[in-house]
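Work Package 3 committed the consortium to producing structural models of liganded targets before the mid-term review. Because experimental data for this complex are still outstanding, the team generated a predictive model from sequence and the ligand definition alone, so that downstream docking and mutagenesis planning could proceed in parallel. The input record is reproduced below exactly as it was submitted to the modelling pipeline, together with the SMILES string for fe (ii) ion.
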Amino acid sequence: MRNVTTDNITETFVSYFGEDTDPRILEIMRSLAKHLHEFAKETELTHEEWNKGLEFLRWAGRITDDKRDEFVLLSDVLGLSSLVDMVHSSPEATSSSVLGPFHISNAPPRDKGADLGAGYEGEIILVEGVIKDTQGQPIAGATIDIWQTAPNGLYSSQDPDQDIYSFHALFTSDENGRYGFTTVRPVSYTVPTDGPVGDILKATGRHPWRPSHLHYIVKADGYRDLVTEVFPDDDPYLDQDTVFGVRSDLVMTYIKQSAESFPDTGYELSGKVNEPYSKVDFDIVLVKAH
Ligand SMILES: [Fe+2]
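The resulting structure, written out as tokens with the ligand in place, is given here.
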């Protein structure tokens, strides 16, 4: 093309692709270019603004390392991570929700009833539920990877005072599909604001808060993996999660219980709880893998 114009640049871009281009790559690149080109035309993007955007990406690259990923955060605050989750969520399954940047692989396996909050001050919560299929049948042997903030609002990878696997655990559902554990209630927290993503939030008058949540990755043979979160229904940031992770089926009531009602057996804390705690019931539905 010797006469590239604002009208033909998108199709010209696609026409330069080789004949052997993978069809999915072609589809994604064509759509990406179409929307990117439309964006520049619609906003009449100036050179100065475009350069600011490039500087933003350079800064995001500089600040990203093996412990901090500014690009995941950017995707999260733009709503892209949640959109990808929702596009691929099955309506029959528990909703998926953002993975976020703080998951750590190889969390230590723990027995049903274990306590994640040992040594930390905070409200005890007892979390229980059943992993089941879309027919309501329990799934035994599912793995449930859990992670959360400490009461100071930090994940272990952000906090040199925590062991790296603090508030991370891998449970397995029992023969009735049940899982259960205790921990201290995670707190609302802010996403990091000292990098370029923080500048976007400031420039658009947005707060950086996420409502309290427990992260889950649930896997079972023959079923689709589920990445999700559970939120308490009394959190002040529930209606304005800065990463758009809240779905109504993930919001649970944390029910206050007296110390005397804590189960006598089956939990690491059985016989040791002498203050009110909260009970959280969170059942999870998995769909079959195709
Ligand atoms: Fe989180």
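Reviewers should note the following from the model. Residues 100, 102, 213, 215 surround fe (ii) ion (CB under 6 Å). These observations will guide the Year 2 experiments.
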